[in-house]
Specification:
The chain has 205 residues and is α+β, with helices and mostly antiparallel strands. It has two domains: 113 residues, no CATH class; 75 residues, no CATH class. It is 25% helix and 24% strand. The protein is built from six helices and eleven strands. The strands form three sheets. A five-stranded antiparallel β-sheet has the order 1-4-5-6-7. It has a four-stranded antiparallel β-sheet with strand order 8-9-10-11. The chain has a two-stranded antiparallel ribbon with strand order 2-3. A hairpin with a 2-residue loop joins β2 and β3. The two termini are 44 Å apart. The relative contact order is 0.09. InterPro entries: DUF7007. This is DUF7007 domain-containing protein.
């Protein structure tokens, strides 16, 4: 059963990875959700943390509210309602497939997990030019200027920037791109060496 309590100014402030908490919701003993003006997440007691499967466990006991919360709800399903449990399973499959597979012993197909689908996409297109940024063209009406790199790689700290190329892609074609990215066809998509709309910063996508 969920028990909600508020943190008042005269109480000792609780410091979270996202700032000082302004409220707390206790789902069960040792399972507390803390919210801040910007973000939030669960904090587990040492006892609760020790009860989790090692694949789900985070050593500091904090689980942010976007994806990691699902590890808590999955590990302690008796503390969450049916809707929350279902959402936790969907979230784990999509965003934490390795952890889900380790706990359940089930193998997810790429189509059953966003992350696994994304991995497969990049594996299949490691040697293709994949768009990493795009903008409606001022110089070429009905066309999108696309910045692409091999495999869709982006700049990383401590590594040299990947080579970038600018291609022109028809609006309608680019609008039909898949959820993991748009792959350039060098035989059809024209390299752009004219002044770019990226310099003006207009109509960015």
């Amino acid at each position: 059963m969920q028990r909600e309590r508020m943190i008042f100014p005269d109480e000792r402030p609780v410091h979270t990875p996202w700032g000082v908490a302004d409220y707390a919701r206790e789902f069960a003993e040792g399972i507390v959700f803390y919210g801040t003006p910007s973000h939030g997440g669960f904090k587990l007691s040492a006892e609760r943390l020790a009860q989790m499967h090692s694949a789900l466990r985070d050593k500091d006991g904090w689980f942010e509210e976007d994806c990691a919360w699902a590890k808590v709800a999955f590990a302690f399903r008796e503390c969450f309602n049916d809707e929350q449990q279902e959402a936790a399973i969907r979230t784990l499959k999509d965003w934490c497939p390795d952890e889900y597979e380790a706990v359940t012993g089930k193998t997810l197909a790429p189509g059953a997990s966003h992350i696994k689908g994304q991995r497969l996409f990049h594996e299949c297109h490691a040697q293709d030019w994949v768009v990493i940024s795009a903008i409606r063209s001022d110089q070429h009406p009905g066309v999108v200027e696309c910045i692409a790199t091999l495999g869709g790689k982006r700049a990383e700290w401590g590594r040299s920037d990947p080579e970038r190329r600018c291609y022109l892609v028809p609006d309608a074609e680019y609008d039909g791109r898949g959820k993991f990215g748009f792959v350039i066809d060098p035989d059809r998509h024209v390299l752009c060496d004219s002044p770019s709309s990226f310099l003006s910063g207009k109509a960015a996508q």
